[in-house]
Amino acid sequence: MTLPVRRLAAALVLGAALVTAGCGTTEANRAAVVDGRVISETTVQETMAQLNTMDPPLFQEAFTPTYTLTTLLRAPVAIDYLADKGFVASESVARQAAAERGIDDPGPGTLEVIRFATAISDASGQGAFGDAENIELSEALRQQDVEVNPRYGEFDPDSFAVSVTVPSWVTPFNAAQ
To answer: How far lies 16's CA from each of 4, 6, 9, 11, 19, in Å?
Structure first.
């Protein structure tokens, strides 16, 4: 092999390594994967935008990307768990609740979060969702295989939540300096 061909081959290998080095296991438009089910970044953004424009709001606090993703991670497991306990929140009920709050064309993520909130509210309101049920649901959540795109933060399997993390190379701003 001649020197120019070796240099070209080395440059191609180096280029491929640089292109793939920052990618990790995440793919484009993936916020998270739960037991093989993909939650896209598009879904997180659309859901967050719709939930934050609801009037009255669905929850007391505003949805952030991390909070929205955590809710989308929990919702399907909680919906199934509560359905087994007799608390079913249908998609039609969720659509009606969205319309009552000003969302005429809710996305799938928004509907899932509304179903989740409705089922939890119904179960709690009837005294059927106490500490024991919360522990059971937490165990069901912990059994999920979850991968989260690092741009959303770090997944904590104990709390089954995504928390915002600051990369080690970012230094906090100090106004006194």
So the answer is: 18, 15, 11, 9, 5
Please give the structure tokens belonging to residue 101.
């709050």
Q: Using an 8 Å Cβ cutoff, are 72 and 44 in contact?
A: yes
Beta bridge partners of 30: 40
Pick from 143, 152, 79: which is nearest to 112 by CA?
A: 79
pLDDT in tens, the chain (177 residues): 555 545 544 444 444 444 444 444 447 899 999 999 999 999 999 999 999 999 999 999 999 999 999 999 999 999 999 999 999 999 999 999 999 999 999 999 999 999 999 999 999 999 999 999 999 999 999 999 999 999 999 999 989 999 987 766 667 666 665
